[in-house]
Design brief:
The structure holds two protein chains of two kinds. Chain A is built from twelve helices and three strands. Chain A has helices spanning about 30-40, 40-50, 55-70, 80-90, 95-105, 110-125, 160-170, 180-195, 200-210, 215-225, 225-240, 265-275; strands spanning about 10-15, 20-25, 30. In chain A, helix 3 packs antiparallel against helix 9 (about 200-210), helix 4 runs parallel beside helix 11 (about 225-240) and helix 7 (about 160-170) packs antiparallel against helix 8 (about 180-195). Chain A is globular and about 75 Å long. Chain B has helices at about 5-10, 40-50, 55-70, 80-90, 95-105, 110-130, 135-145, 160-170, 180-195, 200-210, 215-220, 230-240, and strands spanning about 20, 25-30, 30. In chain B, strands 1-2-3 form a three-stranded antiparallel β-sheet, with no helix packed on it. The longest helix of chain B has 19 residues, at about 110-130. The radius of gyration of chain B is 23 Å and the shape is globular. The relative contact order of chain B is 0.15. The chains are: A mainly alpha, B mainly alpha. At the A-B interface, strand 2, helix 4, helix 5 and helix 12 of A face helix 1, helix 4, helix 5, helix 8 and helix 9 of B.
């Protein structure tokens, strides 16, 4: 056991007269405030922080495009809706983003699906026939059993225009081969999956081309989807709970309900409480 | 803190919470968890952790009922809906529950109304005991446009939990607290002045204030107040296909922003 933290990512040098105050911070060897701040972009620094490597210009551009696609999964996305639920109740920002992550982490449309799809792409790229089963699920028993093939939309009839446009725009700035492979093999993969490609599948190929591990991509997916959650939660907070759907008539109990009983009459008790204290 | 004060904490962190001597024993507060606390219910242990005090069996029943009666298993209720949406996204059970719990740190329900109502009740109780008129104090609150937390309720005008809790407390002969009665006097004033009724928050805060809770203890106690409603909603979401919880079509969203334009 030790009381010393170990890291190869972050170095801080102390101020001469205060050992608790850092004078310089280095991210993978680069001075954050003197060097990266004036010379690097947010996406270059994000890539550096997560991978330890300085990205090529193409990689930085690809990550930026991934971020633009990811930044708002949309107002109907389950993570964004969770965030709006917290926001409309005027929960603090941290609570809103925890709610966003609680659903946005999932393996249906969430960060977990992206990482699982990456494993499928890595296993199938270069193969002559595709196997889209996810091995090793029994080792992840904290997650619900998979009910669809990661990277594909079980409810859609065909890949959406957004998915198709995103593939085109990501292929333009992708030199890793996975995006091109996905673009070329999409229809064959969809035939094996029995479902059209989803945005999670597209993002998974992009993360493969960035050289991210599935674990790093899962974090990146979570981080990059939060701006939309924040924006929509803030908006619903301002619009107020009266404008937020309550789905009054949609939720219908399926099981027999106990007979409704009258509320207890507390009139005399309340009179006693109010009278007592006067 | 100065660097030397920070250094002192770096060298020694004084704790009153407890101490785990791994492979030997665990001290919780001032007690051995595996010996002197082993016969407590988990709920009683949690109360001890929140307040540092032990409660009588009747008080434990009262506090237990506060959690029980606020745990509604309805997916439309915000924390439950978050847990259900996470279930629909096939997230893990814990992530779903944490998301729902996090939302309870809210201004409109659970944490903030309870903490602020408890603070108000404690303050008003003291001011009234010092001779100030309750009606004057409340009118001043209204004149300044301040929210009287614990009074008024979204969605419905009658909070059915109030008569149930009053009845439960009366059955235990535990409805004699000063703040409980003060809460009903406040309701009587607000009913006349603003046609506003008490919601369960006022009564919960009053019960906790009468049991000596401070604001931090109230906040900690509120953390699991509606918790038991969430697991059924997560399980429910798992019973339908992924994405099946209250799905929205594109035209279920009413757009009010600027028309499409070029960058």
């Amino acid at each position: 056991m030790t009381d010393t933290l170990e890291t190869a990512i972050w170095k801080e040098t102390p101020s001469p007269d205060d050992p608790f105050q850092a004078s310089h911070c280095y991210c993978h060897g680069y001075d954050v405030h003197e060097d990266l701040l004036p010379n690097a972009s947010w996406f270059e620094v994000l890539f550096l922080l997560l991978t330890g490597n300085r990205p090529s210009a193409v990689q930085a551009q690809l990550l930026e495009r991934v971020a633009i696609i990811s930044m708002n999964p949309g107002i109907r996305d389950l993570g964004v809706r969770a965030a709006m639920n917290a926001g409309v109740g005027r929960a603090p920002a941290g609570s809103v983003l925890v709610a966003a992550i609680s659903a946005g982490a999932g393996q249906f449309g969430g960060a977990r699906e992206v990482s699982l799809a990456m494993e499928l792409w890595s296993a199938n790229r270069g193969a002559t026939s595709f196997d889209l089963s996810c091995p090793g699920q029994e080792h992840h028993s904290e997650w619900p059993k998979l009910e669809h093939v990661p990277g594909f939309d079980p409810h859609a009839r065909c890949a959406s225009a957004m998915v198709m446009t995103s593939i085109e725009r990501l292929v333009e700035v992708s030199d890793g081969g996975f995006m091109r492979w996905l673009c070329d093999q999409r229809e064959a993969l969809e035939a094996v999956a029995g479902a059209p490609l989803s945005m999670a599948g597209v993002l998974a190929a992009a993360y493969c081309d960035l050289g991210f591990s599935a674990a790093v991509a899962e974090y990146a997916s979570l981080i990059l989807r939060l701006p939309g959650a924040a924006a929509h939660a803030l908006e619903q907070r301002e619009l107020g709970w009266r404008a937020f759907p309550f789905h009054s008539d949609v939720v219908r109990p399926q099981q027999p309900r106990p007979e409704a009983m009258d509320l207890p009459d507390i009139t005399s008790a309340v009179k006693e409480y109010v009278g007592d204290s006067k | 803190m100065t660097p030397s004060e920070l250094e002192a904490f770096r060298r020694c962190y004084p704790t009153t919470a407890g101490f785990a001597e791994l492979s030997k024993r665990s001290v919780y507060g001032e007690h051995d968890l595996h010996h002197s606390l082993k016969d407590l219910s988990w709920f009683e242990l949690n109360l001890y952790g929140i307040t540092g005090r032990r409660f009588s069996p009747v008080q434990v029943r009262m506090l237990n009922y506060l959690w029980l009666q606020t745990s509604y298993a309805d997916v439309r209720i915000w924390p439950n809906r978050i847990a259900a949406l996470a279930g629909s996204a096939r997230s893990t059970p814990l992530l779903a529950l944490v998301g729902g719990m996090a939302s309870c740190d809210a201004e409109l329900f659970v944490a903030t109304p309870l903490v602020r109502c408890l603070a108000m009740l404690r303050r008003v109780r003291r001011q009234v005991s010092e001779g100030e008129a309750l009606e004057t104090l409340l009118q001043a609150e209204l004149d300044h446009g301040r929210t009287v937390y614990g009074f008024g309720r979204p969605i419905a005008s009658v909070d059915e939990r109030v008569p149930h809790l009053v009845t439960f407390l009366r059955d235990l002969d535990a409805d004699h607290g000063e703040c409980l009665r003060l809460a009903f006097r406040i309701e009587a004033f607000l009913l006349e002045a603003k046609q506003i009724r008490m919601n369960i928050g006022a009564l919960l805060a009053a019960v906790c204030a009468d049991l000596g809770f401070d604001e931090v203890q109230m906040h900690l106690f509120s953390s699991l107040l509606v918790f038991a409603g969430m697991p059924p909603c997560y399980r429910d979401a798992k019973r339908v296909p992924p994405g099946g919880v209250l799905p929205l079509r594109c035209d279920d969203v009413r757009y009010t922003g600027v028309s499409p334009r070029k960058w």
